[in-house]
Design brief:
binds zinc ion; 4 domains; flat; Arc Repressor Mutant, subunit A; 351 residues; alpha/beta; single chain
């Protein structure tokens, strides 16, 4: 599923990073493939070939670019990252730099990759993962010293320190803690960052690489809670429902949401969820539905503040004239979602 060639051409010529992960371009003259946002000099269009995935580009004999490193994009983790994450999830004690080298992974590269894709270094990721596991165990009724040992901490005091720094409380108060759990989800529109509390999904956004760290720290500030990589039942359900949605097997989301906001925002967001699949409303319609017929601009703003893309379908609001209006994830994604829902044959049209 590739966008039309004219659209891809425009995307890489403008180094549009909202297309990163959507397609890859390979340059016949150099034998190298890149992400659309690569800072390298632009090749001549007649020398470019397009691929859906890095794997396909590799299979066609291209090598990954050393500047934009297309194998290390968030959303489609390279094999070495998948291996590493599996090791973290199964290891009985924390992995050291030497363990990474034994796996033929350069520790500096791992640090950079995790910093970019998760907003934290590899060691911070690993620590957060282990602490998240310990928190879960304590909540299930295990004693802190047992949880500490299972999480690979040498001493209970070391565990308490790390726990306190990460969760800003003591293991004894673990029951009051409700950290935000976060994971990346893949989609035909590029990777999404999904977050949930124990009450429900609190964020679903397209992750355009440059914005990721900002998005994560905004969330942390907003909810005033620590963030832990992992998953919970809400995120699992979201992943499943999204897959069905993109396959046109689902027209309504049933996953529980945790979307606090001002009373006006909450009204707007619940109105959005009443717009039927496959239909669009104007901003005027949205405003009058919440009893604020003159409040078109305020309705538009609240619409734009929606943190749970797709599930709270802010993409279903368009200008009265029929033009698309705005969209935080980029107009091309908005067009794609509307086309998907109206059953259009061609999912990529020029937005
Ligand atoms: Zn490149």
């Amino acid at each position: 599923m590739l966008p039309p060639e004219t659209e891809m051409l425009k995307a890489w010529q403008h180094r549009d990073e909202t297309y990163d992960g959507v397609f890859y371009l390979a340059v016949r003259t150099t034998g190298i493939f890149c992400c659309p946002s690569c800072p390298a000099r632009r090749p001549r269009p007649e020398n470019v070939e397009y691929f859906n995935s890095p794997r396909q580009a590799l299979a066609a004999g291209y090598r990954p670019c050393l500047r934009c490193r297309p194998m290390e994009r968030p959303g489609s983790p390279p094999d070495w990252v998948k291996d590493l994450v599996r090791r973290v999830e199964t290891a009985s004690s924390p992995l050291r730099d030497q363990d990474l080298r034994d796996m033929n992974i350069d520790p500096a590269r791992a640090r950079r990759y995790f910093k970019r894709s998760h907003g934290m270094t590899f060691h911070a990721y690993q620590r957060a993962w282990r602490l998240g596991g310990a928190l879960h165990q304590i909540r299930q009724g295990d004693q802190p010293d047992q949880a500490a040992a299972d999480a690979g901490f040498q001493s209970l005091s070391g565990f308490r320190d790390a726990f306190g720094r990460h969760f800003e409380t003591t293991p004894g108060r673990a029951d009051d803690l409700d950290p935000i759990v976060t994971r990346m989800l893949e989609s035909p529109l590029g990777p999404l960052l999904a977050c949930a509390t124990s009450s429900g999904v609190c964020l679903l956004e397209f992750t355009d690489r440059r914005m990721l760290a900002t998005q994560i720290s905004t969330l942390r500030r907003h909810f005033k809670r620590p963030i832990t990589p992992g998953t919970n039942s809400h995120l699992d359900q979201l992943a499943e429902e999204l897959e069905e949605y993109f396959a046109r097997d689902r027209t309504e989301f049933t996953v529980t949401l945790d979307a606090p906001g001002t009373p006006f925002q909450v009204r707007i967001w619940s109105a959005l969820q009443r717009i039927p699949y496959g239909e669009t409303w104007s901003y005027e319609q949205l405003a009058s539905t919440v009893g604020s017929p003159g409040g078109c601009r305020a309705a538009g703003r609240a619409n734009g503040m929606n943190r749970i893309a797709i599930v709270i379908p802010c993409h279903r609001v368009v200008n009265k004239s029929g033009s698309l209006g705005g969209y935080g994830g980029g107009l091309r994604r908005k067009q794609f979602l509307l086309d998907l829902e109206t059953g259009a044959d061609h999912l990529w049209s020029d937005a």
